[in-house]
Amino acid sequence: MANKEYHKEWYAKNRKKRVISARLYRKTHQYKEWNKRYKKKHKKKMTEYIKFWNIKRKYGLSKIDYSSLLKKQNYNCAVCETPLSTNTKKIHIDHCHLSGKVRGIVHQECNHLLGLSKDNVELLKKAIKYIQKYSK
Length: 136
Hints:
The protein has helices spanning 3-13, 15-26, 29-41, 43-59, 63-72, 108-116, 121-134, and strands at residues 91-95, 102-107. It is built from 7 helices and 2 strands; from the N terminus they run αααααββαα. A hairpin with a 6-residue loop joins strand 1 and strand 2. It has 136 residues and is mainly alpha-helical. The chain has a domain at 62-136: 3-Layer(aba) Sandwich (His-Me finger endonuclease fold). Helix content is 63%, strand content 8%. It has a two-stranded antiparallel sheet with strand order 1-2.
């Protein structure tokens, strides 16, 4: 049996053993120190990786999907259509809370507007009338 085939077979047979071994190693002081140094050295890379890992986990968007959505919106907010900030903490992914479908990328403030109105179109229309009434 070729070396590559042997290792492939061994990995498949000993999956549980490997998982336990990896968990034990990650609890060691040596690993924790290495991990701390790695994160410090690659802070920007890790921050971006974690950001897109969370986006993928929460919304099902890959980095490519996220980028193409931004490009499709012309790098503007989907609600107010003004340029999005370079500060990624102020950029939010708007999605339907019922279906989970992503609608667009928006400013933090626009996301709060939609969230506080609970996506209620009638409430937003009333708010517009109220603003118009007192802005004359």
